[in-house]
Specification:
The protein is an alpha+beta fold and 406 residues long. The chain is 18% helix and 20% strand. Strands 1, 2, 3, 4, 5, 6, 7, 8, 9 and 10 form a 10-stranded antiparallel β-sheet that branches. Helix 2 packs across helix 3. The longest helix has 22 residues.
């Protein structure tokens, strides 16, 4: 008897084997099943089984405990001290020896069956496996070629596509929206949407401009108002005003001097009838309305005789800066030049009488002359030229002809 494989409490798992080698009735060899023994254990085959730890419940037992050394006597029950220790106890698994069992069959459970497509099909969802040819898995052909010659069917199976019946069809790697977002137009749309979102958030006062929190719409309104006020104040200070002009009533024309006097000849001729002479017009400029100094880029003058509406002279004044809040006086250089058909022309006669020698008059007083002066002023800081005109009455000629002249 193999003490290393027999349990001393085998009655807990099945029929208890006797440790008596003489009275033991071994199983028939070759049958693979145990025959019931004749002897002291036959009477206990129909009784109900109880817990092996019956010694704890000795008063509740329906059978008498048997001791191998004291047949028919009452013992303390099944425990480790009441029986002969026959070796290690048999594990809890059917009461049979694992070494005596047969080898597992080839069709036993295979944990790799599902991975190798050889296991049974457990699901018939979506119509899978309803047809007869799909009742089982399709075997995947090995990737390495076999040394054995293949049949025509094997060659077609190896060349054709393999159907993975248990794997769903693979979808596209990128969604359409993701592909759209990676294109130039998609990126442009995303930037536009981001701008619109930021504009709406700023319009609601949730965020500020340029990544700040304080540059909200309310702050922008106050800022624009302040800028407009500053611009208005700046323009009020810097924009020049057109000055008012006035002439000296006692002597509006004065004799020219210097290089200008030499540049224009002084003469009166009867044939052909003409006259020319230089003169200065003293003009008083009112700059009290200006806060900063006033600058003239140029002043051009035209002289007209109002009685005949004939132009009798021109003038030009160059760039000049005048102080603000004052009444400066400028000398406008005038070039009187006129050509008539004969010496009876009213314009020529009027200016000849005004410029004759005073000794030719009995009273010693020469008559005055009238003219209109039109000035075109180009002022720095103004977009266009401005025109001013004035009427001069009874003006004295700035020079006097000799007594014997003409």
């Amino acid at each position: 008897m193999d003490y290393d494989r027999k349990s001393a409490v085998s009655s807990f798992y099945g029929e208890r084997r006797s440790t008596d080698a003489i009275n033991d009735n071994p199983a028939t060899a070759g049958l693979g099943a145990r025959q019931p023994r004749v002897g002291q254990y036959n009477a206990r085959t129909t009784r109900p089984r109880v817990d092996s730890a019956s010694s704890f419940y000795a008063d509740r037992q329906s059978r008498t405990s048997q001791d191998l050394l004291n047949h028919g006597g009452q013992s303390a029950g099944y425990n480790a001290s009441s029986f002969f220790d026959a070796g290690r106890q048999e594990p809890v698994k059917g009461g049979a020896d694992e070494e005596e069992e047969e080898e597992p069959q080839a069709h036993s459970w295979d944990i790799y069956a599902d991975f190798n497509n050889v296991g049974p099909r457990y699901s018939s969802a979506f119509g899978i496996g309803q047809r007869q040819q799909e009742s089982g898995y399709h075997q995947i052909q090995p990737s390495t070629p076999s040394a054995e010659p293949k049949s025509e069917g094997d060659v077609e199976s190896a060349l054709g596509p393999v159907e993975l019946v248990t794997v769903p069809a693979l979808g596209p790697e990128w969604q359409r929206s993701e592909l759209k977002s990676m294109s130039k137009s998609g990126k442009r749309e995303l930037r536009n949407e981001e701008r619109r979102a930021k504009w709406k958030a700023w319009n609601r006062g949730e965020i500020g401009l340029f990544g700040t929190k304080w540059f909200t719409k309310k702050f922008l309104v106050f800022l624009v108002f302040a800028i407009c006020v500053l611009i208005a104040i700046t323009l009020a200070i810097t924009i020049p005003r057109v000055p008012a002009l006035s002439f000296d009533g006692s002597s509006p024309l004065t004799a020219a001097t210097g290089s200008f006097n030499e540049s224009v000849p002084t003469e009166f001729n009867r044939s052909p009838a003409n006259f020319s002479f230089p003169a200065y017009a003293e003009i008083q400029v009112d700059t009290t309305s200006n806060i900063i100094p006033l600058t003239f880029n140029s002043i051009e003058a035209q002289i007209w005789y109002p009685s005949t509406s004939m132009q009798i002279g021109t003038g030009y004044f160059g760039k000049k800066t005048l102080p603000a809040k004052s009444y400066p006086v400028i000398e406008m250089p005038l070039n009187f030049t006129y050509v008539a058909t004969n010496d009876t022309d009213p314009t020529w006669v009027a200016w000849y009488d005004a410029c004759k020698n005073s000794e030719l008059y009995s009273s010693g007083v020469r008559p005055g002359v009238n003219f209109e002066l039109i000035l075109s002023m180009d002022i720095a800081g103004l977009p266009s030229t401005h025109t001013a005109s004035t009427q001069v009455a009874n003006a004295a000629c700035p020079f006097e002809l000799p007594v014997n002249y003409g």
